[in-house]
């Protein structure tokens, strides 16, 4: 799609090569060599986007026709263009994915002595803008995971369907529905579906109807920073023929 849009300008419709020539010009470089100094001054935002597109184009060319062999020089060009985009302040998801890919290659591909075939060769490691963006994203990602794990550890039942054997988990509390019955907030089970709520009713019923004397967790532990737009679903929400008592008799539990 991108290729056909831009390549029309060059008169080479649908050609990746044509698109890449055009992107390089958009980056202010008419030499055809990505490592040449900038030829004409272009707005920073356009230049950054052009490098990002070129990075994607080179990454595309890096996998040989067999779909397995990776051309390390094409990967390097992709990384060098990504580095230029990052240096201009543009960090895109595909640039971050490229950084992860190179890091993975560095760890997984057996190293050879020849620096031309090494992903940890200086030509890769010196792309400081790319690695700075990559490491910053890694840190953010780990912090997100840690934050989520802390929240889940505090209230695992808010992130996991309570029905036995279901096993569905949500990344956000809003991904599940909580019981809309009279059960105390600290002991409200969450469900992925009405079916799971029905399945779990026999177990949950004593709590929901206030028959269980088990202690209720401290409500302070409920306070969370994220907006909780969790929907609730009532055990008796399906009309007069579906209240906890009737449901219990229906034999569906
Ligand atoms: Zn479920
Ligand atoms: Zn309940």
Secondary structure: elements and pairs:
Layout: H1 2-10, H2 16-26, H3 44-61, H4 72-87, H5 93-108, H6 122-125, H7 128-154, E1 177-179, E2 190-191, H8 194-208, E3 231-233, H9 244-249
Parallel strand pairs: 1-3
Antiparallel strand pairs: 1-2
Helix pairs in contact: 1-2, 2-3, 3-4, 4-5, 4-7, 5-7
The structure holds zinc ion (2 copies).
Structure commentary:
This protein has helices at residues 2-10, 16-26, 44-61, 72-87, 93-108, 122-125, 128-154, 194-208, 244-249, and strands spanning 177-179, 190-191, 231-233. The protein has a 3-stranded mixed sheet with strand order 2-1-3, covered by helices on one side. The protein is built from 9 helices and 3 strands; from the N terminus they run H-H-H-H-H-H-H-E-E-H-E-H. Residues 4-10, 218-229 and 237-253 have low confidence and may be disordered. It is mainly α. Helix 1 (2-10) packs across helix 2 (16-26). The two termini are 52 Å apart. The chain binds zinc ion (2 copies). The site of one zinc ion has 8 residues, from loops.
């Amino acid at each position: 799609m991108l290729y056909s849009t831009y390549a029309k300008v060059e008169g080479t419709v649908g050609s990746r090569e044509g698109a890449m020539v055009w992107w390089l010009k958009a980056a202010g470089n008419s030499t055809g060599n990505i490592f040449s100094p900038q030829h004409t001054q272009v707005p920073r935002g356009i230049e950054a986007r052009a490098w990002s597109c070129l990075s994607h184009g080179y990454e595309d060319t890096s996998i040989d026709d067999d779909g397995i062999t990776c051309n390390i020089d094409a990967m390097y060009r992709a990384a060098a263009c990504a580095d230029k985009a990052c240096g201009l302040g543009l960090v895109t998801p595909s640039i971050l994915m490229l950084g992860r890919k190179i890091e993975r290659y560095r760890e997984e591909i057996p190293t050879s002595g020849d620096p031309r075939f090494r992903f940890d060769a200086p030509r890769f490691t010196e792309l400081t803008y790319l690695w700075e963006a990559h490491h910053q994203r890694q840190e953010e990602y780990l912090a997100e995971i840690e934050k989520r794990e802390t929240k889940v550890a505090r209230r695992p039942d808010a992130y996991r369907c309570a029905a036995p054997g279901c096993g569905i988990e949500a990344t956000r509390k809003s991904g599940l529905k909580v019981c809309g019955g009279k059960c105390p907030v600290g002991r409200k089970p969450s469900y992925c579906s009405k079916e799971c709520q029905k399945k779990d009713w026999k177990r949950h019923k004593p709590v929901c109807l206030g028959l269980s004397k088990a202690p209720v967790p401290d409500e302070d532990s409920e306070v969370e920073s994220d907006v909780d737009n969790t929907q609730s679903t009532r055990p008796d929400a399906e009309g007069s023929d579906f209240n906890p008592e009737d449901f219990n008799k229906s034999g569906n539990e």
